[in-house]
Amino acid sequence: MLAPCPEPTTLPVAGAATCFGVRRVYCVGRNYVEHIREMKEGDERDPPFFFQKPSDSILREGSEVPYPPSTDDFQHEIELVVAIGRGGSNISADQSLEHVFGYAIGIDMTRRDRQREARERGLPWEIGKSFDRSAPCGPIHPAEKVGHIGSGAISLSVNGAVRQRGDLGQMIWNVAEIVANLSQQYTLVPGDLIFTGTPAGVGPVVPGDCMTGVIAGLGEISFKIGERSV
Question: What is the pTM of this model?
Answer without folding.
Answer: 0.94
